[in-house]
């Protein structure tokens, strides 16, 4: 037993608390940064930028998205496959290209029920970018549209090729029925954040648009700019804290993926869940970047410029990690100009987002092989764009 444990600073209870609430480490880390004078300004700027440049636009985009998809009927892939196998693969890729992980999870579930082919699994996992697509569309809509189009085309081609090589039911689990427990989430803390969001969203949107158009807030008063920074930082800290308390964060899945649907389902709660999740990972990556650059003196942009040929390969390996958290970090690095578009594209094709979790649980062999298959087009397209641009 070390001296720290002996004097009681680290107790079994505290170790157990940290182990079962790993998400709380992020807001605690931010509070420490506020307390350290050399890190205070960095933390306030990073949090404010994350809120006004990402959170506000993601919330607005998600609200439009979820109300839009409610109007679209869900088609059974088995019906499309009976009409045309190529149409089934294309629609699976289209579901994957949609922002978020919902489309990919639908295809994974239908595959285990015998309603979709293995090629459809490869198509949807290749096309999906997960929740990172919301971040990219909110900050770089033109690049986001290009990534979605690339994913759709590459996913359709890969799915069609796989279906010519493998049988329709390749690696499908032998169980005749798949069961899934409905998890009732601790949504009370999220519901508490709803009225705060309702009060803050419209003025925050106005400020966010003014920031996007490079408006100088000092013309409205000496302390206007400072006040906006503190407001944005406070909102970001509040969002991260709500995210931390929304899940125990005990396992890798609970930390890196967004929460399951609440019961009963609610579009507004789902919007807040997703926005909090994206914001938390953006804040973490913003802070990591600022500390590495301003404190450690690491010039990531120069490093990637010298070793640009490694960026797509590294992005593909990160794409193997299940969950949307690591992929949001990659997208954030692209938005900040650290990694090239070729690396972002390689990661978008390689990563499976949250859809990999149910795939591993329901059809582990199919999930692993399909994920490995997505690496081939990811490397091909990523390095193809790399050699074209350099």
Describe the structure.
The chain is mainly α. It contains 20 helices and no strands. The N terminus is likely disordered.
Tell me the Rg in angstroms. Answer: 22 Å
Query: What is the helix fraction of residues, given as a range?
Result: over 70%
Number of contiguous helices:
20
Major β-sheet annotation: none
Number of strands: 0
- Backbone shape: globular
Structural class: mainly alpha
Q: Low-confidence parts, pLDDT < 50 over ≥5 residues?
A: 3-9, 176-184
Please provide the ordered H/E string of secondary-structure elements: HHHHHHHHHHHHHHHHHHHH
Q: What is the rounded distance between the termini? A: 55 Å
Beta fraction of the residues? under 5%
How are the SSEs placed, and which strands pair?
Layout: H1 3-6, H2 12-20, H3 25-35, H4 37-69, H5 77-83, H6 85-97, H7 102-112, H8 118-127, H9 132-139, H10 141-165, H11 188-212, H12 224-245, H13 252-256, H14 267-294, H15 300-306, H16 311-319, H17 325-335, H18 341-350, H19 356-362, H20 364-389
Helix pairs in contact: 3-4, 3-12, 4-9, 4-11, 4-12, 4-14, 5-6, 6-7, 6-8, 6-10, 7-8, 7-19, 8-10, 8-20, 9-10, 9-17, 11-12, 11-14, 12-14, 14-17, 16-18, 16-20, 17-18, 18-20, 19-20
